[in-house]
Amino acid sequence: MLTINRELVDAMIAHARRDHPDEACGVLAGPVGSDTPQRFIPMVNAARSTTFYEFDSGDLLRLYREMDARGEEPVVIYHSHTETEAYPSRTDIGLASEPNAHYVLISTRSQDTDEVRSYRIVDSEVTEENVVITDSVP
Question: How far is CA 50 from CA 16, 83, 124, in A?
Fold first, then answer.
């Protein structure tokens, strides 16, 4: 189960809407071992694609160094799907390299609703998990 603050969910949705029609991507960092997302880190989709996302390798290296220095890890890795449901594609599954992370997908295919779903992806096995959105600040 992913427990996440409403402000972080709203920030991910806003990023996905802002980057539409391209896929948006980013990370929510939290203290190592806490499983608590606290810091919103929007990234640039280096692929600039409507069907694929890619973190810039230099940006990703800087992010991991920064998180390491702050005692953080990626609790959530998120991206958007612009024309399909919020379910990991084969490419998404192949790119999932953080076994402890929650992989959050946001579908922006509808103007009226935002579909936000979370998954664990370990050894190419996808397991959907419940998302609990809270109003409290961690």
Answer: 11, 8, 23
Question: What is the spatial distance between Cα 78 and Cα 42, in angstroms, rounded to a whole number?
Answer: 9
Residue ranges per structural domain of the chain: 2-134
Cα–Cα distance list, 57 to 45, 81, 94 (Å) = 11, 21, 17
> Dihedrals φ, ψ of 80, to 5°?
-110, 155
CATH number 3.90.800.10 is the correct assignment for the domain at 2-134 = no
Q: Give the HSE-up count for residue 109: Cα atoms under 13 Å, Cβ half-sphere.
A: 11
SS3 134: strand
pTM over cut 0.85: yes
CB 28 within 8 A of CB 74: yes
Considering Cα of 55, then 61, then 66, then 70, what sign does the dihedral take?
positive
d(CA 104, CA 127) in angstroms, rounded, equals: 12
Residue pair 117/87 in contact (Cβ under 8 Å)? The answer is yes
pLDDT tens for 1-58 read 999 999 999 999 999 999 999 999 999 999 999 999 999 999 999 999 999 999 999 9
